[in-house]
Amino acid sequence: MKEGEQSINSGIEIGLYTLADIGPDPLTGTSVSARQRIMDIIAAAKLADEAGFDVFGVGEHHRLDYAVSAPPVILAAIAQVTKRIKLTSTTTVLSTVDPVRLFEDFATLDLVSDGRAEIIAGRGAFVESFPLFGYDTSDYDELFSEHLELFLKLNKHENITWSGRFRPPLRNAEISPRPVQKQLPIWVGVGGTLDSAARAGRLGVPMAIAMLGGDPKRFMPLVAAYHSAGIEAGHNFEALKLGVTGHGYVSKTTQQAKDEFYPYYSNYWSYVNRQRGMAFRMTRADYEQMTGPNTALFVGSPQQIAEKILRQYELFGHQRFIAQIDIGGLPFHKVASGIELIATEIIPVVRKATSK
Question: What domain of life (predicted)?
Fold first, then answer.
């Protein structure tokens, strides 16, 4: 969708994202290949586009147990089998990518997709990209700040002169190609850090909050810090867009959804925490608490998930909600079933309730 065009849908935007984890199916013990995982992601994006979702995101990791290290490549492949859905990274680890290369990649994606490219940039929960690309983790935050500042300048100007600490200076450099959109939309992904929320507000860029569990109310200080910093920096409140991201699984009834998803969700956190050097086993009691009606984990019937989305909308007034529904070795046929249920039984309810 080109800048300035209105969405064909009213209400908040609803989308899906994937981190492309390659985990064994806990019920069968088998894992798909990286190639099959990518093919499944492309197929899921095609289904989401046909079903009327607004956005589809692909994450970045640099590990053998994840299938995607180059989101713009996968998104370009998705662009060829979709027509209208927005295509975003979720997230780009901005600290360890050259901003010029990032701009070129996503500007090219924007041309290939006829103006549908976006970026969600974050500092990253994993740090394997730092040694891989020659960066020091002690510069974690400073790298992100400098790279984000440079990207925003590249986004505005065809020619740029710039100097910073972490990369060679640019002297009247031509930044090409230019995207279809006037500027590439870039969101800042935030976990739980007030300083990160305030930085997004000062820069006047949209903020996407990763709400992976607990009471959604605990994220309200992030939203307040974002809005306060943005308004203080002179940005219009309307320009300070918010997105909410979270894990989800939907089935016909809440009990069925909880029963079906527990092996996969427990499996997911088992290997993710093991990747981080942590020992953790999710009990069924833990899971029952995490999936309660007042939490940020979207597991349940279409009615319960719609209610959770709308409860968060009352809290935050956000413009976008995107869910990750393909984790823990979940087989593709269950992902496809979830896409259909969300499209037919959740999206219409949420759009009607959030329409102006």
Answer: Bacteria
What span, in angstroms and rounded, lies between the C-alpha atoms of 306 and 251? 13
pTM of the model: 0.95
Round to whole Å and give the CA distance between 331 and 167.
42
18-27, 86-95, 144-153, 277-286: segment of lowest average pLDDT: 277-286
Rounded mean pLDDT, 239-264: 97
Q: Please list, in sequence order, all residues whose beta carbon lies within 8 angstroms of the beta carbon of residue 314, skipping any fewer than 6 positions away.
A: none
Indicate the domain borders of the chain. Answer: 13-354
Residues 242 and 317 sit within 8 Å (Cβ to Cβ): yes
Structure tokens at 124: 């990253």
Residue 344 to residue 354: CA distance in whole angstroms:
17
CA distance 219 to 216: 6
End-to-end CA gap in the chain: 20
Contacts of 134 (CB under 8 A, 6+ apart): none
Which residue(s) pair with 170 in the sheet? 162
As a whole number, the mean pLDDT across the chain is 94
Q: What is the DSSP string of 141-154?
A: HHHHHHHHHHHHHH
Residue-by-residue DSSP string for 116-185: -EEEEEE--S--THHHHTT--GGGHHHHHHHHHHHHHHHHH-SEEEE--SSS--EEEEE--PPPSSSS--
Distance CA 214, CA 192 (A): 12
Q: How many CB atoms lie within 10 A of CB 75?
A: 29
Q: Looking only at Cα atoms, what is the longest distance across the chain? A: 61
Q: What is the CATH number of domain 13-354?
A: 3.20.20.30
Residue 84 CA to residue 53 CA, distance in Å, equals: 9
